[in-house]
Design goal:
With 494 residues, the chain is mainly alpha-helical. It has helices spanning 17-38, 47-51, 55-58, 60-83, 85-105, 109-119, 125-136, 139-170, 173-194, 208-231, 236-257, 266-269, 272-300, 313-341, 343-363, 368-396, 402-430, 443-466, 477-493, and strands spanning 432-435, 438-441. Helix 4 (60-83) packs antiparallel against helix 10, helix 5 (85-105) packs antiparallel against helix 6 and helix 10 (208-231) runs parallel beside helix 17.
């Protein structure tokens, strides 16, 4: 039998079914995570009656997920870099599923809050999945896969609201959590079967003290931000939380710089390419989240306000659905722009598109088609921006730190969203007028919220343009000079 020549490469075996399903399985996990975070929103008005708890206690079903997600995302990212990304990813999906089962089995508000805190662990799904894609995929497939993975957050959020509203409207509310439990179990099993463990690891001992310090600082910060409107921004509790967050964060920073294997490599974070990417993530998270918050309230406002459409929760979710479909369709375009022009240009373009979307919202927020168009334009810009952020981080950090670095980037988005929620609420409360004895935001208040988000989007665009360019895919100045010299010599010889 003929043997291949020694200088010929060995034939590459075609990918098996598990390899072909890696990207769809990871993307479905990201979508499911976003769905889990939004399904409780349609329940909030009815949960006090269904659980016998106060409205303040019910609000913790959202706050608990926010806090645990913010704390666990960088921690689980670091654990994935050290102990195996697939292993930690499966654990995060399993915790999310257990939380959903607990919600399906109980109507006790304490159990529901605990379960929602467990579901917050799923916030680490996207950074862990992006790191697995970097380790497992060839470069020519990596860009589009990472862009799709980044877009799953918006896609899942757009799908989760109308899905949950339909279930709540036509079935018992526990049915929704049984459905998400089944999807979670399926997603966990599919990840175990289709996703390979990444061989890229970082050695050393896990920084437990750093994890505890970061958790304490984030809890104080985000608790103060999320509850400031309820407790009062000048209250002793809120000011005390902010002071505690600043103190603990300063001590944590000092500890991280003196630890051989820190939870977060601050020397890496302070590099312009990494640090400015995190700043852009925070600003983009702020600008993106205002779109969902304000649109949902605007279209549900009573018609008696003169601008409201009085839509139901189901119809509201359907208004946001085109944005989710757009995010799915535009993720390949984002990858192409990043490949040709660089991810920082994609990020800057996305932030600029978000600002244009808010300009449309300011121009017309009375007609339904203009509201949907403006929200969809914002979603398009978010797709471009969110798809570029992990690519920027991947190009700027060592392979052994991709999960933890992307975890920090997702954390910055989360902080931006929390601040956006508080800022939008403050603007709308300040610009309200009574309607039937109930204060209702004015159209001017909504327009101010749009303007604020648009300005933040432009700040994100400026931060993106300030990121040093990635020269890895372009010839260096010396190489270009050598090429020109060789070309001139060839012309002279001719």
């Amino acid at each position: 039998m003929d043997q291949p020549a020694p200088d010929q490469p060995a034939p590459i075996s075609p990918p098996g079914p598990r390899d072909r399903l890696t990207i769809p399985v990871l993307a479905s996990g990201g979508i499911l995570m976003a769905v889990m975070q939004t399904v409780v929103v349609p329940l909030l008005p009815d949960l006090p009656r269904l659980t016998g708890a106060s409205a303040a206690a019910v609000s913790w079903t959202v706050t608990a997920t926010l806090l645990s997600g913010a704390v666990l995302t960088p921690v689980l990212g670091r654990a994935g870099d050290m102990y195996g990304k697939r292993r930690v990813l499966i654990a995060a999906l399993a915790l999310m599923t257990v939380g959903s089962v607990m919600c399906a089995l109980s109507s006790d508000i304490g159990v529901l809050i605990t379960a929602r805190a467990l579901q917050g662990a799923a916030a680490s799904v996207v950074p862990l999945s992006i790191s697995i894609l970097r380790d497992e995929l060839p470069p020519e497939r990596r860009g589009s896969a990472v862009a799709l993975m980044s877009s799953t957050v918006g896609i899942g959020a757009a799908l989760g609201l109308p899905l949950a509203a339909l279930v709540v409207q036509y079935a018992d509310w526990h049915t929704m959590f049984w459905l998400t439990s089944a999807l979670g179990a399926l997603g966990t099993a599919a990840t175990w079967w289709a996703v390979k463990e990444s061989p890229v690891r970082e050695s050393g001992r896990f920084d437990v003290l750093g994890a505890l310090g970061l958790a304490a600082a984030l809890v104080c910060l985000l608790l103060g931000v999320s509850q400031g409107g309820v407790w009062g921004w000048g209250s002793a509790r809120v000011l005390g939380l902010f002071a505690a967050a600043g103190t603990v964060l300063a001590l944590w920073w000092w500890q991280q710089l003196r630890t051989p294997r820190p939870l977060v490599d601050l020397r890496l974070v302070t590099r312009p390419r990494v640090g400015l990417s995190h700043v852009a993530a925070l600003l983009t998270g702020f600008a993106f989240y205002a779109n969902s918050l304000v649109t949902a309230q605007l279209v549900q406002a009573p018609k008696a306000t003169g601008y409201g459409l009085g839509l139901s929760i189901v119809a509201t979710g359907l208004c946001l659905l085109p944005g989710g479909v757009t995010m799915l369709l535009f993720s390949p375009l984002s990858a192409r722009i990043s490949a040709s022009r660089g991810p920082r240009i994609t990020l800057a373009l996305g932030a600029a598109v978000i600002a244009c979307g808010y300009a449309l919202r300011i121009a017309d927020s009375r007609d339904l088609w203009m509201i949907i168009l403006g929200a969809t334009v914002v979603a398009t810009g978010t797709t471009l921006a969110y798809s570029a952020l992990p690519t920027l981080v991947l190009r700027a950090v060592p392979a052994a730190q991709t999960a933890s670095a992307n975890g920090v980037n997702v954390l910055m988005r989360t902080i931006g969203q929390a601040v956006s929620s508080a800022a939008v609420a403050a603007v709308l409360v300040h610009h309200s007028s009574p309607l039937g004895g109930v204060p209702v935001p004015t159209l001017h208040g909504y327009q101010l919220a749009f303007a604020m988000a648009g300005v933040i989007a432009l700040a994100a665009c400026a931060a993106a343009l300030a990121i040093p360019g990635d020269d890895s895919s372009r010839p260096t100045r010396r190489a270009r000079g050598a090429t020109r010299g060789a070309r001139d010599e060839a012309l002279e010889g001719a």
